[in-house]
Amino acid sequence: MQPAFRKVVIFGVGLIGGSFALALRKAGAVSEVVGFGRSQATLDEARQLGILDRIGSDVAREVNDTDIVLIATPVAQMADIFKRIGPHLGPHTLVTDGGSTKGDVVAAARANLGGRLAQFVPAHPIAGAEKSGAAAALPDLYQGKRVVLTPLPENSEESVARVRMAWELCGANVSELTAQQHDEVFAAVSHLPHLLSFALVHDLAQRDNRDQLLSFAASGFRDFTRIAASSPEMWRDICLANRDAMLRELLQYANELHDLYQALERKDSARLEEVFSEARKVRSAWTQQ
Question: If you write DSSP's letter for every residue of 197-256 in order, what string do you get?
Fold first, then answer.
């Protein structure tokens, strides 16, 4: 049987892009993977690890005859990549991405892809990790994980179905939202937790007794702050890209903290237990899904 995809081109061969390539290889779904990136060292490593068959040198030639282009760079770099590839995309080439925000990515695509906009089907794989780079890529990263597509009105059903198939071949469970719905949802359940984790570690890092505090930190601190080991560049871009939704979520969370502050100030044990009990009930139900 012929593989589902003869050729895939990846911009950004780190955790997300590298795992996409490895997963398609494991599924026998791709014949050739070509990579582009900012770092020659990372590209060389990806080639040595078997993520790439070739390191690309001519963007125009490579994207013209490929089946799928995956853009797996930080979101702030995507506009430039759309601009570079737009004039050279073949008529049957599809483009998808791995960005954690969608409104800004869609706007960048609209501004730079011109008449090829309908060939871009935005996506967000919910399968990140605190590690990054080609060495962090895993063939099973997407197995059983969710990937959210945010199709454009211009997309054909066939194009969406083909991009859906690519992610499903990686082992993912694929669902769909609008770009606005996506950014509102993930501001609450992904972007805000990362911001809070970075903030807590940064707060402790500024204190004179930082070393003493960290020496007594145990599993609760480790679990809560694990995501603060994520890429600062990536999360800087995500926070700025989803700024409006993030500001709303931060304000709502600040109000929740103020409520707890007042309960502590009043020694209101009933209110504290009410909040803790409701949170415990919701989290327990979620983990059992």
Answer: HHHHHHHHHTSTTHHHHHHH--HHHHHHHGGGGS-HHHHHHHHHHTHHHHHHHHHHHHHH
Per-residue DSSP letter, 88: G
Identify the helix (H) or strand (E) that includes residue 30: strand 30-36
> CATH 3.40.50.720 residue ranges in the chain?
5-177
Name the residue type at position 92: H
pLDDT digits (tens, 9 = 90+) for 4-56: 999 999 999 999 999 999 999 999 999 999 999 988 999 999 999 999 999 99
> What type of residue sits at position 244?
D
Write down the CATH superfamily of domain 181-287: 6-phosphogluconate dehydrogenase C-terminal like domain (1.10.3660.10)
Per-residue b/e over 256-267, b at no fewer than 16 CB within 10 Å? Answer: eeeeeeebeeee
Is 80 exceeded by the pLDDT of residue 130? Answer: no
Mean pLDDT of 92-117: 96
Cβ contacts of residue 89 below 8 Å, gap of 6+?
63, 64, 69, 95, 113, 116, 119
Return the CATH fold of 5-177: Rossmann fold (3.40.50)
**Contacts (Cβ under 8 Å, ≥6 apart) of 236:** none
| Integer Cα distance of 38 and 11 in angstroms | 9
